[in-house]
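Posting for a labmate who doesn't have an account.
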Amino acid sequence: MSKKRVYYFGKEKCEGSASLKEILGGKGANLAEMVRLGFPVPPGFTISTDTCDYFVKNGKYPEGLDKDVEAAVKLLEKETGKVFGDKEKPLLVSVRSGAAVSMPGMMDTILNLGLNDETIEGLIDASGNPRFCYDAYRRFMQMFGDVVLGIPHSSFEKALNEVKAAKGVKEDTDLDADDLKEVTKKYLKVYKDAGKEFPQDPWDQMWKAIDAVFGSWMNPRAIKYRAINGIKEGELLGTAVNVCTMVFGNMGDNCGTGVAFTREPNTGEKEYYGEYLPNAQGEDVVAGIRTPFHLDKLNEMMPEVYDELIDIFAKLEKHYRDMQDVEFTVENKKLYLLQTRTGKRTPYAAVKMAVDMKEEGLITKEEAIMRVSPDHIETLMHPFFDPDAKEKAEVIAKGTAASPGAATGMIVFDPDDAEKMVNDEGKKVLLVRPETSPEDIAGMAAAEGILTSTGGKTSHAAVVARGMGKPCVVGCSAAEVNEEAKTLKIGKLKFNEFDWLSIDGNTGEVYEGKIETVRPQGIEGPLAKILEWADEVRVLGVRTNADTPKDAAAAVNFGAEGIGLTRTEHMFFDEERIPAVREMIVSDNLEQREKALDKILPMQQEDFYGIFKAMKGRPVTIRLLDPPLHEFLPKEEEDIKALAKEMGISYEDLKARVEELHEFNPMMGFRGCRLDVVYPEIGVMQTKAIIGAALQLVEEGEEVNPEIMIPLTGTLNETKYVKELIVETADKLIKDSGKELSYKVGTMIEIPRAALVADKIAEEAEFFSFGTNDLTQLTFGYSRDDYAKFVKSYVEKGILESDPFQHLDREGVGQLVKMGVEKGRATRPNLKVGICGEHGGDPYSVEFCHLVKMNYVSCSPFRVPIARLAAAQAAIKNK
């Protein structure tokens, strides 16, 4: 028996359902599901995603597909009473894409298929409305030419504009039947000029359209969209093809089309949100070609249809247990649903909806946590306009607030230029367009924000920007965009490319110039509630990497439970301290070094005191000095001369010391615990500063939990040597103080050998912290300073799945981590284990830390909320 590849949905029969999403794609599965629910859906059929997979791999269709499609069309003819290709009662269809994962606007759609010079006469006779018929015909010719034959969209727009100009009108709706008939003639010339022929055979149209939709799965914009959204090639079978009976919103004022959401996708409020265009087809709204009305317009014009739609919204949301994005058409006062899907939403709305739906009893706490992505939280932690700076700035225009957030950047008109400027030059850009199209996806992803002069809240720009978490203002009619001249006019103001502009996606306001931004200082509202639930579910602790009291305090506000890494070397670069540090480095005997270290000691102790105080009894892990000493010395000749003069030594002596410390490979050189082995007085000074600060707070009645961490150990003897000098120094200070103070001594595991002999190292170390930045570097043999030259090519060519410094390499580096944890705990069962590299704030890496049963992850303060959520999601996914 041959494999089923065509699934019918309609009153005759319904072969699909929402459960077949992987095979039917989201659109096809949901159309079938809505038929099963009894909602008004035009009948049609879906060609499966695995047919797309077969087509892409083999360049042809599986045997028998043509007969299956013809049988489905016969069923459509029976149900509608119309005949495909018939001159008297022609059946017209739409051919649309639809993958298992929603990819708005990324693949192709063709409407009104089946029209030709003969069937249009039958449509005119049947409808009695020649204007509508020629409007449908010219739309089909334009879509078919653009999507199937690759004729530029602009060629058709130019022909249409010529007819409008000849008549002296601006809107398509001002053209009558004769004008539109003239447009179709001009379109035939567009085909001819492009060396193409418009097919008159409806079946030829059908198969070419199916070819185009399946082919669009591998078009550049669809591939780019999948890459941007983390969908790996091969993860999905492809797109389905949905062939659906046409219903028409462009037959007159008792017809129209719209897009609506069952909740407000910007704010998450439980209120309906949508747009409606009378006498139009769906592409007019989605593509942003015309600026639509608020959904209330439908209520004004056809209240009974509006009430039916609102009733359906409530039923859809209850059925799918999530906010729905619904496309609909009204034909002669009859409502039809063309699509429902889980709606794209802003990060704030995603959080609010998750909390509200849990509290409404629609979803569980665990589902609410899984509804919020780490990317949502990251966006919410991004800067917003400084209120004082914004108050001084002048609003020069206002459009529709389509996606919230503050964006400031250099004006760029071309999406390809935007991508290049950001990725290659590191610039901040604002993409300014009349409207966006699916081809703009890469530029939109690169830009800080998007401004368009046309379109509404459900246009392509708005929907895609919301999905990306990008600030967006659409429908800013005061913005006159000249793409050819690369200029923007707003009133009397003229802006050239690369001028600075700022937009507020919360208000729709546009500002001249650059406005300073600030970061959020805490967590409140729905986000606080989601993270509270996350804390109830997660197993992993979450700490922060912080080198100053200010960073430590910020991290506590974001929910950090301690500090997993304080880098002591960052404090050495302070301009008041660097002279003493350099004095210590150039000293050529112990006495001189200790004299210099005595100057540094009170400074370090003051630093640690501030951090301990900010953490209020939470554990604080302080890493002893790690980088090579030469990093603290100048390299240029003039700088060396200036420093020699400042320090009262000869230029020759200082230069000789700089050269002596120079290393060919400092990453693997004289650094980390090696400094304390050769110069134990450095480790002694730092231990005195740490314990001294802790004892100060004990004296004040405060709780303190210091953890002293030895960097870069690779052998048991290194760990043992440095630990002994720490313990000897610390215990003497504590004994002399007469106070009680507990502390721990542990090590970083960042050298592959340390992971291999972790059972030995755990004989001395009371805790492990995996430094996965260096561990990745040493395991792969990639220099972090140089790997950027090749890693992009490695990822693009599939040699690496992702950048291993961004997402922990589970296969290689991960095995060393797992081995280190298991070996360490075999020796010391209560060994506390964490991670403090950049991976500590990466959700993929956090999940791995959960799987290997670490105690905590540590990350930068502003990534603490992300790690809290990621840890909870890891616990839920891996119950």
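Reply:
Got it, the structure tokens are right above this. The first strand starts at residue 6 and ends at 9.
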